[in-house]
Design a protein that fits this description.
Layout: E1 6-11, E2 19-29, E3 35-38, E4 45-48, E5 54-57, E6 70-73
Antiparallel strand pairs: 1-2, 1-6, 2-3, 3-4, 4-5
Length: 82
Amino acid sequence: MDYPDSFELIFQTHGAADDVVVVRMTDRSGAGGHPVYEDETGIVRAEISYRGEVRMLASGGHQAPGMPLLVRPLAGGAPPAR
């Protein structure tokens, strides 16, 4: 199965703008057998299925990761850094 190389995870914040995190595919698979994606810091991790189902994964102790409002595949990889 072909999976996108990267996704945008959009989280709702209490501020004026939503928080957008770009995650890239790693060489790991999650419990559901789908690829694990992570941001460049390695803190935000998610298992994302080919149907766009997301399971957020804790990357350290005492984390309770929230669920994104929207998951959007990025065509051609991640956008250039701003």
